[in-house]
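Entry 12.
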Amino acid sequence: MKIFIEVVLPVLLIFLAGYGLQKWKKLDIRIISTFALYVLTPGLVFRTFYETELNLQYMNMVAFSFILLFLLIMINKIYSYVRKTPRSIESGLILSTAFMNSGNYGAPIILFAYGTAGFNYAVSMLVLQAIIMNFFGVYYAARGQAGIKAAVKSVLEMPPTYAVIAALLCQGLHIELSENIVSAIDLVADACIPVVMLVLGMQLAEIELKHFKWDKIAFGVTVRMVHFTYSRCRHHILDSDGCFA
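Predicted 3D structure (tokens):
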């Protein structure tokens, strides 16, 4: 109970604030989410890759994330093939199961549970998953309603993609930004996670429990639970060897 009050409850209160605001004011969520995607997320992505030393630990995180992503995509493709679902449904299942919710919920939980040291890894994972979502998630989202050409175009329009490139160039060319510019980036980056959490709460307020395809939901929840269990098992195995996962 203590863990719930000290770790989980503060996060749920932020979601609840967004949920209550949307029920009360009925705001246009698209404006806020677009602002977060095009301004706040690139700031967080740039800061993370500009300041982070990309060592073997991060390479392991990247490898694990991509292997898990492709395994989950294959599971969804097999399920869709067996059930003969249309491509739009297949894309929806992939979007709902193959990508981690590492930012809206995971990062603040890590902050409250493990402090700054754990939070630095959580933000790195958040940024990695944001990049994966920008490449693969946007592709499958556009693929469900349009062709491959439109999907690739959507990927290239994502600002975080260019934030990664800019940060890696600064690191590789040893370009040092001025203190004031770094401070401005920090302000934008620090706002990213709480704003996205509020947006998630607002989106939950818009959900209507009608016309759900419960068989697809049951499959998605099952895959997500297996995904979660596997990740937790991996964490305990690595932690027993003295590594942080």
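Annotation: Confidence is low (pLDDT under 50) at residues 235-245. The chain has one domain: 2-240.
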